[in-house]
Specification:
The protein is α+β, with helices and mostly antiparallel strands. Helices cover 18% and strands 26% of the residues.
Length: 269
């Protein structure tokens, strides 16, 4: 079994540095607000295994383990409530596999699902002990802003898929070397799957201490607007070769089941 560093190295050395879009065919062979749902125990990181500087950062920012991997804290939830746009639009995105459908609960009789916060924001941190954010998607658009560190994002445009086609895949590096095409800010529209992982601090080093960003979701994040990618979904969206390159970024099936069960209790669905 390859560890994270071996996977990352193989992934990176098979890509053109600084590439923002690629085709793998060209490559050689977690009340339901983000803070209140108690799912931290399913996350992959353990603060006690982190370096002292990372532990200080986690404590200073008040971060807790995230079900997607890494650590987070919700920093803002707009008090303004807006109509839930996801109840007003067709939920059936073109999907190649039934397992890729949204798990949309029926509107609750008391109307709790009829509105959303206008926006929510979090800090999000990847570390050497929790170095990747597993494939997931939100219904709302997410604006990401880099604070410290360097990493790579992989976006699968599942919302664009037409019958009989595979999804477009995009990848880019987030970092402070903007002359080399690294991004300081990026937007992921709703319906697209994303994953991320830690990269070395620069192209001349092999280690990295962290990737710290902020995310703002519009309309505000709710777990009922979120789902993880399964292996079957990934197989339906990409080619066999692409699946072999990307499946290491999937959350394990048992973890997805545990999170779904906990959410079902928390959301009363």
């Amino acid at each position: 079994m390859e560890d994270f560093e071996q996977r990352r190295y193989r992934f990176e050395t098979q890509k053109i540095p600084g590439s923002t879009t690629f085709s793998f065919a060209e490559v050689p062979a977690s009340d339901d607000s983000l803070s209140s749902v108690a799912l931290a125990s399913t996350a992959s990181g353990s603060e006690s295994n982190e370096t002292r500087s990372i532990q200080r950062l986690i404590k200073r920012l008040g971060l807790i383990p995230h079900v997607e991997g890494g650590y987070f804290v919700e920093t803002d939830r707009d008090l303004l409530q807006v109509p839930n746009p996801f109840l007003l639009q067709d939920q059936g995105h073109p999907q190649p596999a039934p397992s890729n459908q949204w798990q949309q609960p029926e509107e609750e009789p008391n109307g709790h699902d009829s509105t959303r916060s206008a926006s929510t924001s979090i800090h999000y941190l990847l570390t050497p002990d929790s170095p990747k954010g597993h494939f997931h998607r939100n219904k709302g658009r997410t604006v990401h802003t880099l604070h410290q560190g360097r990493g790579r994002y992989v976006i699968i445009h599942a919302d664009e898929v037409k019958k009989g086609e595979k999804a477009r895949i995009e990848t880019f590096i987030v970092g402070h070397n903007i002359e080399n095409g690294e991004k300081l800010q990026w937007v992921v529209e709703g319906g697209k799957y994303k994953a991320s992982f830690l990269l070395p601090a620069d192209e001349d080093t092999v280690t990295s201490e962290k990737l710290l960003i902020s995310e703002t979701v519009v309309p505000g994040f709710e777990y009922r607007d979120h789902n993880f990618m399964t292996a079957d979904t990934l197989k339906g969206l990409v080619s066999d070769e692409q699946y072999d390159e990307l499946h290491w970024l999937l959350l394990p099936p048992l973890a997805i089941q545990q999170i779904a069960s906990t959410l079902a209790v928390s959301l009363g669905t």
